[in-house]
Amino acid sequence: MSGLFGMLSVAARSLEAQRFGLDVVGQNIANVNTAGYSRRTVDFAALPPTSPLNAGGGVEVQGVRAIRDALLDRRLWQERPAAAMQGAIADALSIVEVALGDPGASLDAALTEFFDAWGRLSEDPTSTTARQQVILKGEALATSFADMTGRLTLAQRDTDTRIRGVVDQINALASEIASLNESIAKGVAMGTDVQVLRDRQGEAIKSLSELVAVDVIAREDGGYDVTFGLGRPLVIGASDFQITATPVGPSGLVTLSANGVDVGGEITSGVLGGLLQVRDTLIPGYISRLDEIAYAVATEVNTRHQAAFDANGAAGLAFFDPPAATAGAAAALAVNAVVAADPALVAAAATPDPGDNSAARDLAALRDSRVMFGGTATLHEAWGRLVYQAGTDTQVARQEERTRREIVMQVEALRDSVSGVSLDEEAAGLIRFQRAYEANARFFTTVDSVLQTLLTMVGR
Amino acid sequence: MGVTATGRPDPTDTVNRLASVLTDLGDALAKADLDGVLAQQSHLDELARLLPDLDGPFDRDTLPPAAMAALLALRRARQLGEGLTQFAAATRAARGLVAPYDRDGRPSDPVRAGSFDARG
Q1: Which of A384, B30, B70, B106 has CB 3.0 to 4.6 Å from A406, enough for a Cys bridge?
Q2: Residues of chain B contacting residue A413, judged by C-beta atoms under 8 Å apart
Q3: How far, in Å, CA of A399 to CA of A395, rounded?
């Protein structure tokens, strides 16, 4: 193609290509606020020369494609569920923190009042009123333990309700992705533009990846297969495989299954992973710690009370109903009904002499005795550690959520910082970032070790 | 930075400063700010020298939250750094730009390095 007409043809074809490019730019601008819209770009390709005597055929549009940075997409699919998981944990634990109450106005206040009542009885061991107060404060303490267990159990049930809702959302998104897979495959086969469908599919996968960590595999027909956990299928082509939530046992908490297989243990990320961790690990851990404290209260008080003498000069009975085991001790804690019915059965004396106050003083002093965790903490300190643990778990989850979201921002910032430069410059820039980080990171192990030691030293 | 009666740096002040430096490092990593990352190196260097010598009385009320804040900041910087490293490695690999030698001078991609024949 040479001569004037040939040159015009080249110019016309190039002009057409550039106009098409402008259309695409306009579309990008128009959709700048459209959720899930991927920026389109135009691939221009040089047409090869038709003979050794001309310079080439100009450019032509090869096609429109969405800029889908596979690497960035993959990174986002990894980080979103991790961030969402920590956010779910932090949200759920903030409810637990409220349930545990403020320092000095929660279970610790009931403990203080109980031991104060023993202190007042030691000042007047023959007082029926003081004996009655010990029983009342003992019952109030037992109620506090039961209430606290109830609040934590309620938080666990609330979390379970959220789990059911998230499973419903996951199943709905799986259905949508499967349906889009079918439409995209048909569109690709017929040669129609499926970009809008792809954008919707991208949005659905993004939403899904917040709820549960998924692996996304591109199909040859243009769709995506989606799996979760240990490769459990969620979407294969046009078929979706639902997750089932089934209430089990007296607690009524749901177990999750897919194709009849229990998958609860495989879901360790996303909102669902976070909620499962709160329901199955964190809250049971707090309840267990609460049980340990209640068990120690019952056994330590009973041991002292049974070694003492009541107002009738008889050996003391168990003050609290003896707990059968540590598990469930907080919910079951109760003042022995026989003692509760007769204040004279409160044992305040170390001898059969009803005027003796030694046992009451000993029981009042239990407040400051290190009877928890192998003799390292008082009952109050054990409660304080439980509250601190819940607070720390929340704080760590919140920080982790922020960091995960920052990693997404970081990847985007990196992508922007290296775009528009040559591949060599891009690679060099990334190496410089990496080396700069590594220069700082060489201190991390030392710093980590020192901080862990510090926290151990101060007993937290 | 405050000092104790023994002339050593106050532990809580030192740990607070560490948390601040690590937070700044995390901020710089999050923004892919190379200068910001580099700027923290001397601060961390100095603090890493001070930390093993922390001694003397410390405040039980202020030191634990400071240490926890520093640990969280450290974890954040570490995660962001790992994210950066993975991104850099994956980007280079995706572009086919594999560094011919690692930091110890060994070929990082023996197949590629071994197949190169400068004599044609």
Answers
A1: B30
A2: 30-32
A3: 6
Coil, helix or strand at residue A243: strand
ipTM: 0.72
A428 near B CB under 8 A: no
Look at residue A26 and give its three-state secondary structure: helix
CA-to-CA dists, residue A404 to A397, A413, B28, angstroms: 10, 14, 15
How does pLDDT run across B107-116, given as a tens digit for each residue?
Answer: 454 333 322 2
State how far Cα A435 lies from the chain centre. Answer: 32
- pLDDT above 80 for A54: no
pTM of the model: 0.70
Mean pLDDT of chain A: 83
Distances in Å between the Cα of A156 and the Cα atoms of A95, A162, A247, A275, A283 are: 10, 10, 14, 9, 7
Q: Which residues are within 8 A (CB) of A126 and not within 5 positions of it... i.e. 6 or more apart?
A: A311, A354, A355
Query: At residue A448, does pLDDT exceed 50?
Result: yes
Cα A385 versus chain centre, distance: 21
B32 to A403: CB separation less than 8 angstroms, yes or no: no
CA distance A204 to B7: 61
Least Cα separation, residue B107 to chain A (angstroms): 17
- Given an 8 Å threshold on Cβ–Cβ distance, is B74 in contact with A437? no
Q: Which residues are CB-neighbours of A119 under 8 A, at least 6 positions away? A: A360, A361, A364
**CA atoms within 13 Å, Cβ hemisphere of B120:** 0
Q: Which residues pair with A59 in a beta bridge?
A: A46
Q: Which of A424, A441, A454 comes nearest B81 by C-beta?
A: A441
Q: Give how far A206 is from chain B: nearest CA, Å.
A: 19
The tokens of A192 are what? 């129609």
Cβ of B92 and A399 within 8 Å? Answer: no
